[in-house]
Every structure is written in structure tokens, then in C-alpha cells.
Amino acid sequence: MNKKQKPALEFRDVTYAYADTDAPIFEQVQAVVEKGEFVSLLGPSGSGKSTFFRLAAGLSNPVNGSVHLHGSDSGIRLGRVGYMPQQDMLLPWRTILENGMLPLEINGLSKKEAGKRVSAHLEAFGLGGLEHKYPHELSGGMKQRVSFLRAVVGGNDILMLDEPFSALDSITRFMMQEWLLEKWQASRQTLIFITHDIEEALFLSDRILLFTEPPIKGPLTEITVPLPRPRDEGARDHPELLKLKRELIERMRREERLR
Ligand SMILES: Nc1ncnc2c1ncn2[C@@H]1O[C@H](COP(=O)(O)OP(=O)(O)OP(=O)(O)O)[C@@H](O)[C@H]1O
Ligand SMILES: [Mg+2]
Q: Are residues 59 and 162 both part of a single domain?
């Protein structure tokens, strides 16, 4: 990786607290994601992973410090990243196709062109034949895939996915992980991925950023996954990955005990 390139995402001493609480969740947090990297954020419920995403996407702003996309902290971040929120946020009055078209329309594409682009992805996301249904007619896993598709079709070079596979059964989940890896390996997008699942984080990522109970202070703890690329499903049983999994569990337990 060319380290001279500006990082895709950088948190510089970011402090953040929700308005209705005194205690900050982040205190001078530092984190870097290089261009083209696959980085997972791993940590327990309530540790601030989705908050980190909202700051990165520009849905919230730091109280202190700054968030940089491609080296710049000026301008609007929203619209410069493909963002799949944890809750699907589909518009109930729009069909699946129309929901998928939304970010493209916002970016100025005609309805016709937006419709064409989304239609081209429906099969790959397991949504073929569902384009004229409404969100309330879909299962949780299907809605998650619509939301995932919507983040992908925008074509931004940073893609942020907040627990995209949490509502899927394990076989579909494995298939979507492998599909995502293939797609990422071909596109070289920067991918930032939230999960609770240690194995998922290890199988997919170049690096894992560990989140612990807030407040989180200073540089995020990071773990490098030294498995070669490209990876396929065989990598799941790689001895190095199993060893890292044991270490990671031990480390997360230790961090919990230290609190
Ligand atoms: N809108 C809000 N107002 C006040 N506090 C909030 C708000 N959203 C989240 N929090 C608090 O901030 C902390 C971090 O929440 P966040 O949603 O970032 O965690 P998370 O790591 O994504 O958890 P999960 O894995 O359950 O999705 C939690 O203590 C939560 O209660
Ligand atoms: Mg979350």
C-alpha cells in the first residue's frame, strides 16, 4: 500500500459526546484508514461503533478535533461516502427499486438512469423479482440487502457498512461475505465494516480496530490480519486465523477485566 497517499479516513483527536449527556464517548480519538484498505470495527454493543460511523459520514460533528476524508476536513462529508446505517432507513412509501434509486437521484441522475443502475444489481443482492414490493412486504434480511445495495450503487470510493449481515442466516451470511470480498478485491474501494462477529472481522479485514466500553481515549487499538490476498472461503480455516481469534478473544476479555 502506498503510504504517501492521503488516508481515505482520518480521525484527529476527535472528542465527541451526545448532547444530552455530559460524559464523552470519544476523547481525542485517533484512527486512520488507508485508501483501498478493508478495516473492521469490532467491539461490544454500546461501545461507539455506529457513533464513529456517523462522525465519519458527517451525520454528526466532533465537539473537538477533526475528521478528514482523503486528507480534507473542509466541506460536506455526507454524500462522499457510501453509508449503510444499522437501521435500514428505507422509505416505506417507495418501492424496493425506488429506495435503491434514492442516492443516485439525489446526486442528479435521471430516474431512468438510476433505475437502470439499480436493476443491474438486484439479482446479485438476492432481490430479483422484488423491485416493485414495498419495504413492509420484505423480511428483515431482505430489507438489509436493499439498504446494502443502496450504499453500493452510489459508487463512492469509501464504503461504510454498519453490521450489514447481522440479520442473515449463516449460509447466506457466508455467501454475502465471500461476495463482498470478491467485489472489494476487484474494485479496490476503501471498505469500513462494523461487526460483532470476530470470525467475520478476521476473515474479511486487513486490519481490525477494537472498540471497548466508552469513553475511548487516544489511538484505537488495532490488529493486523496477516492472511494473504485474495482470500476465499478456505481462508476461514487458516491456522493463523484460528490463532488470531484466540488471541483476540483473550485480549477483549482482558480489556473488559481492566475496567
Ligand atoms: N442519539 C443518542 N443520544 C444519546 N446517546 C446515544 C445516542 N446514540 C447512541 N448513544 C449512546 O452512545 C453509546 C454508543 O452507541 P453506539 O450506537 O455508537 O454503539 P455501537 O457500538 O454501535 O453498539 P451496537 O453494537 O449495539 O450497535 C451508547 O452508550 C449509546 O447509548
Ligand atoms: Mg451500532
A: yes
151 and 179 assigned to the same domain = no
Place of cell 440479520: 167
Q: What is the DSSP secondary structure assignment for residue 220, as one 8-state letter?
A: P
Task: Dump pLDDT digits (tens) for 193-233.
Answer: 999 999 999 999 999 999 998 999 999 999 999 999 999 89
Q: How far is the CA of 113 from the centre of ligand 2 (A)?
A: 33
Range of the domain at 54: 1-81+156-259
Considering the domain architecture, whether residues 77 and 200 belong to the same structural domain is answered as yes
pTM score:
0.91
16: nearest Cα among 41, 50, 43? 50
In this predicted structure, what is the pLDDT of residue 259? Answer: 66
Do residue 169 and residue 240 come from a single domain? Answer: yes
Cα–Cα distances in angstroms (integers) from residue 93 to residues 7, 90, 103, 108, 115, in the given order: 39, 9, 16, 21, 17
177 and 66 in a common domain:
yes
Which helix (H) or strand (E) covers residue 39, if one does?
Answer: strand 38-42
CB-ligand 1 contact for 75 (6 Å cutoff): no
**Residue of 51, 55, 84, 211 with the most ligand 1 atoms within 8 Å of its CB, for mutation:** 51
Q: Name beta bridge partners: 26.
A: 16, 216
Residue 1 C-alpha to ligand 1 middle, in angstroms? 33
